[in-house]
Hints:
mainly alpha
Amino acid sequence: MAGDTKVFGMPAESGRWLYVVLGLIMNVCLGAVYAYSIFLGPVKKTFNSSAFLSILPFMVFLAVFAILMFFGGRWMEKLGPRKLGIIGGVIVGLGWLLSSFATDIWSLVFTYGVIAGAGVGLTYGCPIAVGAKWFPDKKGLAVGLIVAGFGGSALITGKIANALIPSVGLSATFLYFGIAFGIILFALSLPLAFPAAGWVPSGWKPAAGTVAAADFMPGEMVKTRTYWGLFLCFIVGSMAGLLAIGISKPVGNEIIKITGETAATLVGVFACFNALGRPLFGWLTDKITPRNSTMLNLAIIFVVSIIMIIAKEGDTNLYVIGFIGFWMCLGGWLAIAPTATATFFGMKNYARNYSVVFFAYGLGAIIGGIISGQAKDVFGTYTFAFYPTAILAFAGIILAAVLMKPPKKS
């Protein structure tokens, strides 16, 4: 079936771009977790918790997000992206709203980490799967643009939170965010739909290497060396990026000694690069293969880890360069991983396959949170968090070179 399909009343080749716009806006709501470094200080003060416990809601959110992605991939096949998006969006709003009633750090872990994280896990894959199926010719670019909203969210939600928390308090900020996210995600999930089976853009023929030689089931996929190369490298990339995102503001305040307002502003700047990294690395993955884009991404993480190891008080430029690199590379992984999954393992079982690959993100969140929290609590400084990121990034480059090659179906 070629390009006679209509989307939003327009020819599919033009109308399908509206799915990218809807997905990008949805991801702005879903990605508010990336503004957690703005919440970190108020959470620690409100609940009188340690550095490790204060970052625990962030860690749990990302871990639950990854776990529910697995179930979301399976449920999407039964419910479709519209119904699953609506269900997940309501849960996201509910989790943020209930966080306004948290009385201690553990209740916040449950409302913010478990409930809101679960909602994001269910919703996140919906616009991505829709975009990937409507853009077989531009998978990396389309998916990268959609998830750019997730990465860029901190620029918007972080600024709003930084203004709201001092004026209305932490609890009211959670409440307002919950109401807004619930309404927006419900409304934008309504138009989500897959193309008819067999639809492709008019006149498009896949270039060699852009379509998998065979469609893999999840059980077949996990038996390949390619999957484990992608999975392990995704763990490293997400661990380094999520670690940095969770401590962006306190590192600026405590190590580089910049003011709180400047640090909050820079978090917004970093978010721009996180958003930019998604279409950039999506495009690179289309152009230079998933393997080469992975190696480039991990090489950048290695370099910026070294930069942050040597950065000290007053080294604002090194701090900015280092955290731009971390945020951009994490954004890149949220385009590399889904595009590589489709390229290596096919589109037929894409939603389920990517949900399995995405477990790496959850593991990265847990490992990154443990490293950053323990670095501060044990050594008294976040600088020690960047030694493991440097070592693992170097190991990841080797893993990508050896393992991330197109798989053969047995």
